[in-house]
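User: Design a sequence. Structure:
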């Protein structure tokens, strides 16, 4: 009995230690959070993983619920740098959000820190805090989103387009009604993320991308406004996705369409020319087998300054930092890090 008690005490001690890692938030400051995240990502581009870890620890003091991609990147930096404190920081959030850890850390099996990671993950009593009803509701809307696109294949282009726009508009309306009725915005800590992607996409991301058009096509007089600009500033919505919605999808800061005019410089695109490897294998840091070209619209210095001003207002990194990170991602295949979802930058295959 004495041995069992000691083991139980040890597990409880681990629980309190790792559960308290996010209890040291100094102050709520989303802008400070994103500034440190940018510094961490730039450090990764320079292969300075210990430096990146230090920046992530600073960032996490200013936002109680870090974004999934930041937890993902931080954990991988910690594994490479063999910093056990990163495991203590990230695992509680992985548990709370039901992230499937083994899928992403298998390539670190030979590192001594992997045993520590497995032990903390296996012995943690922390359970999921996700709102199952909320997730199921979003899942049903997503099923409708996909179903209508199959149902209209035999209709005329105009009729098919209208039916899709109508469905997308209804989906977004219902999502807004759910948010309003519950008073809860679907952050990653509430609804989790989609699948096990390094990009940590939101479960309702597809609804937003499709509905950005529908909010204008069907409800031009009363556009559906989720006030995503305010959610970005409060640290509840990812700035890179917001920039994509504005620059590619015409969402606009007030829920109205602004066409294809770039506000945040997110209208860059990657042209993937060829893939030399038909069956590439996963490697933590591997040079890309794709020939890729980054297409950047030509802009004057004044236009770039204006873009940077708007980016700063929305807690986004400077445009030059964005380009550095995108280029870094382009040079890696099956990388362990993700700064910007490549689909946000528009991927085209030649």
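Assistant: Done.
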């Amino acid at each position: 009995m004495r041995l069992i008690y000691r083991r139980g005490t040890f597990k409880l001690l681990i629980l309190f230690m790792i559960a308290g890692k996010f209890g040291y938030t100094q102050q709520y400051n989303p802008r400070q959070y994103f500034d440190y995240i940018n510094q961490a990502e730039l450090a990764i581009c320079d292969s300075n993983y210990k430096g990146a870890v230090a920046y992530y620890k600073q960032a996490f003091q200013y936002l109680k619920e870090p974004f999934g991609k930041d937890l993902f990147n931080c954990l991988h930096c910690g594994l490479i740098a063999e910093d056990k404190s990163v495991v203590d920081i990230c695992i509680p959030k992985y548990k709370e959000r039901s992230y499937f850890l083994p899928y992403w850390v298998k390539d670190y099996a030979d590192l001594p820190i992997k045993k520590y990671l497995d032990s903390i993950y296996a012995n943690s009593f922390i359970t999921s805090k996700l709102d199952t009803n909320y997730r199921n509701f979003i899942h049903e809307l997503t099923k409708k989103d996909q179903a209508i696109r199959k149902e209209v294949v035999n209709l005329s282009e105009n009729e098919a387009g209208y039916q899709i726009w109508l469905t997308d508009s209804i989906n977004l309306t219902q999502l807004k009604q759910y948010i309003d009725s519950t008073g809860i915005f679907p952050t990653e800590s509430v609804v989790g993320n989609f699948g096990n992607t390094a990009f940590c996409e939101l479960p309702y991301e597809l609804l937003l991308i499709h509905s950005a058009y529908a909010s204008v096509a069907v409800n031009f007089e009363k556009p559906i406004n989720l006030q995503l600009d305010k959610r970005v500033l409060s640290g509840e919505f990812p700035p890179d996705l917001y920039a994509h919605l504005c620059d590619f999808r015409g969402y606009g800061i007030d829920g109205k369409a602004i066409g294809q005019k770039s506000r945040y410089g997110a209208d860059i695109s990657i042209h993937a020319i060829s893939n030399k490897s038909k069956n590439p294998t996963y490697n933590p840091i591997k040079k890309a087998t794709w020939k890729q070209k980054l297409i950047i619209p030509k802009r004057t210095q004044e236009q770039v300054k204006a873009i940077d001003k708007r980016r700063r207002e929305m807690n986004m990194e400077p445009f030059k930092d964005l380009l550095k990170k995108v280029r870094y991602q382009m040079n890696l295949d099956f990388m362990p890090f993700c700064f910007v979802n490549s689909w946000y930058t528009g991927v085209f295959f030649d």
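The first strand starts at residue 269 and ends at 275. The CA atoms of residues 34 and 315 lie 6 Å apart.
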